[in-house]
Amino acid sequence: MEDLMEEIRQFNKERDWDKFHSPENLAKSIAIESGELLECFQWNSNYNKDEVCEELADVFTYCIQMSMKLGVDPKEIILKKLDKTRKKYPVEKAKGVSTKYNKL
Ligand SMILES: [Mg+2]
Description:
single chain; about 70% helix
């Protein structure tokens, strides 16, 4: 993960783009790229895996940049949230069902 973060940091430094990456702009970029990912599935469930992977990479890249900007470790916040979600969706109630936690 550190190598990846350094690669992204270097990419932005070379282009002097860090000045554009406020948390607000990164949040907007995550939403925009998520929309592009969704567009890959517009109208039918057929999709081009290469195109999906490109949009997924865009989403990941902006998410990683957001964590860098906030000074948090992506792995740490994901595991923390997963633990919280694990408590909201105990296996004995949630296994095999897609019901929202407040209706389990
Ligand atoms: Mg894109």
